[in-house]
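Ticket #4471: structure export looks truncated?
Reporter: QA, pipeline team
Priority: medium

Steps to reproduce: submit the single chain below to the structure queue and open the exported record.
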Amino acid sequence: MNGLQLSKSLFDETGLPLLKRTCPEALDRLAAGLSGGSQCHGHDDAVSRDHGWGPSFAVWLPVDSFGSHAPKIRAALAAGLPAEYAGFANVACTVMEFDQYVREVVGVSEAPGDPYEWLRIPEEALFEITHRPVFYDPSGFASARFQSFATYPEDVWKKRLEACLFWLWEWGVKHLKRAELRDDRLAAAWYWMHFAEHAARTAFLLERSYAPYHKWLFRMAAELSPSNAMVVRMIIDASSEERRYNSAASISRLILERLRELGIPEIEEDDRSPVAYPDLPEIHMYRRGLISSIKDERIKAVPAGQSVILPPTKGTTTWFRPAQ
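Actual output as written to the record:
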């Protein structure tokens, strides 16, 4: 039994009956589910049990009900939940104000109405908020909020895909090849892993999904589709090689084929003068195709390879390129 199954069983068999007995007036106002951890998406294993793992659930309350119901619910759960469940200790439950909880995960309490504001939310945070299992939600408020973050606005999706393509080329074409030509194995290994990370992130974007943080990035990318499983297998196979540029180029071509299937346009540069790094120019053609189709001029104006915005600092907007 994994952590998700264990926690849902705890809530169904113990938590919900306890709340029905002790706090019936709050049942229509609350929601319950898992608030964090790898058990949220079912990838926890024996190794996961060394920290933050065990039978648990969270109770979420809207802001207008939190003050009136939270103290009683906390007291009831503290007194009524068993010390262990199904042979596992560390039974835990938290009671949270829902808007504050969502804000802690993604930085905002509601999905932004302005597409540009989505660029302020790291992709890993969007993965987390959309992988929050809900065990009980009679009014639907928690499920609806989580679902509101489920899909990037179209222009934001294109911008984040363009940024991944930029870094695929930067690490896997430009820098990796040059490091290998110099026989700089340490730098080449560093470039290879940055390339591998962005290849996996691109796989999620191409499936209109959010990428998790590094611990689960490659495992979950392999589960997306057979073609993405092939990409991950190529990454694994090439990781033990001394020369990886050819593998990076092959993986990039698989990604380019997927872009072609999606109908992303290829746009050549107006200036066809020779370039210093001529390999795989199609990557840049697809990048330009993505940018040209973005309708929001603010998003289109974000510099190449950048797709996350930090809050303004001293009156200016600070841009940063992830995973440099």
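Status: closed, not a bug. The export was complete when the record was re-opened. Leaving a note from the reviewer for reference: The two ends are 39 Å apart (CA to CA).
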